[in-house]
């Protein structure tokens, strides 16, 4: 990928200013409580302006830059603000290695109070380009599972029939015992299921699954991350496989994760789309 063209360095100075201001008020709890949310919004605004201006200066990508796994016909990606501002039209029009991006999961929330700054952009524009869309939450085991689920639900709002089942991303212990992590994760899953009457899916790494989740949460689908030739977990257990974090896709400024679904397009719709789920 070609280097970015820096045509708006002032945004970088603004970002440094706000970050410095945030550090200074960190030592004063009263100031932090009153100004903290405004500082975060200001930083996000500057970052969004920077991303918006830089997007047109990324050149088109010809291929995914990785070898796609054999035997799978439904391919997709997952993104967050780390991929910056995505041009979803270009993503939808890209065709390489005899396939297109059919679905995307975008980060919506993390913990009890962090909202991904590009979530609404990704949701609106991916759906506009007819890419199947779903939202995920990055789980923090130190926090209440119920409160995290409430924040996720509030951020998503209405879950549309054309969207994919919600996902919880669990890949760290945050220094707490595994059994406590599982209790809070169970609280999250149950709250989401109660709200939308749909079982969410669990995303995790192969090793984390083997060490902390195997034998638990059997009624929930699993999305496994493993960047080798195959997964350790049996194909009877996983629904989706994240096989790389290094793909290059036209319209996305940074490298991106790619995934495959275990099954064809008809199986994908029945398994993943909200409108196909039994209530």
TrEMBL record:
<dbReference type="InterPro" id="IPR002053">
    <property type="entry name" value="Glyco_hydro_25"/>
</dbReference>
<comment type="similarity">
    <text>Belongs to the glycosyl hydrolase 25 family.</text>
</comment>
<feature type="transmembrane region" description="Helical">
    <location>
        <begin position="7"/>
        <end position="25"/>
    </location>
</feature>
<dbReference type="InterPro" id="IPR018077">
    <property type="entry name" value="Glyco_hydro_fam25_subgr"/>
</dbReference>
<keyword id="KW-0326">Glycosidase</keyword>
<dbReference type="GO" id="GO:0016998">
    <property type="term" value="P:cell wall macromolecule catabolic process"/>
</dbReference>
<protein>
    <submittedName>
        <fullName>Glycoside hydrolase family 25 protein</fullName>
    </submittedName>
</protein>
<dbReference type="GO" id="GO:0003796">
    <property type="term" value="F:lysozyme activity"/>
</dbReference>
<dbReference type="InterPro" id="IPR017853">
    <property type="entry name" value="GH"/>
</dbReference>
<keyword id="KW-0378">Hydrolase</keyword>
<dbReference type="Pfam" id="PF01183">
    <property type="entry name" value="Glyco_hydro_25"/>
</dbReference>
<keyword id="KW-1133">Transmembrane helix</keyword>
<keyword id="KW-0472">Membrane</keyword>
<dbReference type="GO" id="GO:0009253">
    <property type="term" value="P:peptidoglycan catabolic process"/>
</dbReference>
<keyword id="KW-0812">Transmembrane</keyword>
<dbReference type="GO" id="GO:0016052">
    <property type="term" value="P:carbohydrate catabolic process"/>
</dbReference>
